[in-house]
Structure formats: structure tokens, C-alpha cells
Request: fold
Amino acid sequence: MGYMPNGLLIKKIHDSLEKRANNTLRSKDLTLMQMSVLMALQETPNKQLSMKEMERHFQVAQSTVAGIVARLEQKGFVEAFGDMDDKRIKLVHMTPAGETCCEETAHYRNEAEELIVKGLSAEEQNQLNLLLLKVADNVK
Reply:
């Protein structure tokens, strides 16, 4: 296999992982983006983010976040409500059902991570991670 431009290689890897994740999540009636929002909420201390924070975090439009949150709300995984102090701020809070969903799908994320580093030594895995962090920082 000859040289492949890094950008194309990253896209191929992303597309493959996204397809795999979407196929896995389809059984839970979730998309990768919906799951990403749940994971972002899961990582916050109070399981809550504002819509504005989500827009910035995922670098998507307000309408995109609103649609994702609406679908997650219909599934009972999140609740959206106005901030008590400032009604212009819309907050999204993960429900216990959303937490359960995150816990149930965590092993899929671990499987994907194992697939990515399969055949790499511990040193190569660390090297890959450091290089990818630099690349991610370069394209911010």
C-alpha cells in the first residue's frame, strides 16, 4: 500500500468508525451524534450543559443542537429547561435513563478503542495518542 495523504487517511478512519458506531447504536435507536451529546453530559459534574455550551463543544449550529436535544428528550434520555436565573439560557440535564444508556454503550466505545490500537505496542499507542493530540491542536 503506497503513501496516502494524512487528511484522507484520517477521513477514512473516521468514516469507518462512524459507520461501525452507527450500526451498533441503531439497535438503541440512537445516532453517533446523539450518543456524543449523552457522553458529553455524562462527563460533567452535574450531568448538565447549556445549549450554548453544546454548540461550542460540537461546533454545530443552534438548530442542530436543538434537534438532537429534542430527539433525546423524546426518548427520555435528557430534560431541557430554562435556567432559573436567566430564562434565555436553556439547560439540558441527563436523566437516569440517559445515564443507563451511557453505561450500556461504554463497552462499544472501549471495543472501538481496542480496534484502533490493535497490534500496536504500549509505546506506539502512547506515541499515536500524542501525535493525534498535536494534529487536533493544529486544526482547531
